[in-house]
Amino acid sequence: MRNVVLPLPVLYLQLLRTAVPELAFMILAISNLCKTFQSTAHHDPVEVLKNLNLEMEVGESLAILGQSGSGKSTLLTLLAGLDQPTSGSIVLNGQDMQHMSEEQLSKFRAQNIGIIFQQFHLMSHLTALENVSLPLDLFKDPQALKKAGEALDNVGLGKRKDHFPHQLSGGECQRVAIARAMVVRPAILLADEPTGNLDNTTGAYVSDMIFDLVREHKMTMLFVTHNEQLAKRCGREQRLQNGRFL
């Protein structure tokens, strides 16, 4: 196992790109990515993702469009470092994620990847403030609670920081999840159908908040959705069908 060199800060890349606009900096490169799940006896393996290739520049927003079963969630799971591809590579912020140990990957994920899930995935026994500070706690940031409080202020929940998830509405829980994903200023923000469990009004409010914060902080975002209108708000669209990009 080779040592993983810490990547250049994303802020540095953003500043350099502003100073030299003709240069493009790749924050994400996916090469020949495949994912196959072994089936039960007497059944062939199931190919979910098939030779995917994709690149994203710093500050770009990209929508991955596809219907249920197209492989969107599997792709996001691989990009988040929560599962390993069968073959191919994922290079994020200059680092090949397949060449990291579990400990290295955990630290790299905490510092470089923000994830907004459809299901919120908040810790029920932690307050909103404690949930948001979790990624910072992983690498012992001494200002974790201060930064978490500021992140909650940014999503309009500063006065709800001491509330537990069961004391919050669905929209408020998703706003806590947004704050948690963005608190480390990640190299890339991964959003997996983030408004899928919300009513139309709340969903529109939450999606506006995500896009406004991404634009304000000049973040790179990969937005997984089946909603054509939400996809059009991204700078680029890529359609996934039967495990392949069209």
Polypeptide structure, described:
The chain has a domain at 60-81 and 101-245: 3-Layer(aba) Sandwich (Rossmann fold). The protein is built from 8 helices and 10 strands. The chain has helices at 10-19, 72-79, 102-112, 128-138, 144-154, 170-182, 200-216, 228-231; strands at 26-37, 46-57, 61-65, 87-92, 95-96, 113-116, 188-192, 221-225, 236-241, 244-245.
Provide a compact summary of the structure.
With 246 residues, the protein is an alpha/beta fold. Helices cover 35% and strands 24% of the residues. It contains eight helices and ten strands.
Give the topology string: H per helix, E per strand.
Answer: HEEEHEEHEHHHEHEHEE
Rg to the nearest angstrom? 18 Å
Strand order of the largest sheet: 6-7-8-3-9-10
Number of strands: 10
Q: What is the beta-strand fraction? A: 15-25%
- The coarse overall form would be globular
What structural category arises from helix and sheet content?
alpha/beta
Please tell me the overall pLDDT: 86
Unreliable runs, pLDDT <50, ≥5 residues?
1-10
Number of helices: 8
CATH class of one domain: Alpha Beta
